[in-house]
Amino acid sequence: MDLEIEAKQWMKEKQMSTITATLYQDKACETAIFPKHKAMEYLALGLTGEAGEIANKVKKFIRDGATEEEFLEKKDSNWL
Asked: What 3-state DSSP class applies to 52?
């Protein structure tokens, strides 16, 4: 599924259909607090941290013997 369509569907489901990706980005930029001269490093580390959290969730599913179907069912819940 196209990422833009998927994002719009998610926002609609969350009753956020009036928010566009551009508006969200603009608002996020207004509240972003980090040293601008280190933006690349800061944002790269933030992205790496988020990826690490997902990797840890996958690791726990493997450890606990969850099936792929159970893992995929959980992706739509609040476990992330």
From this structure: helix
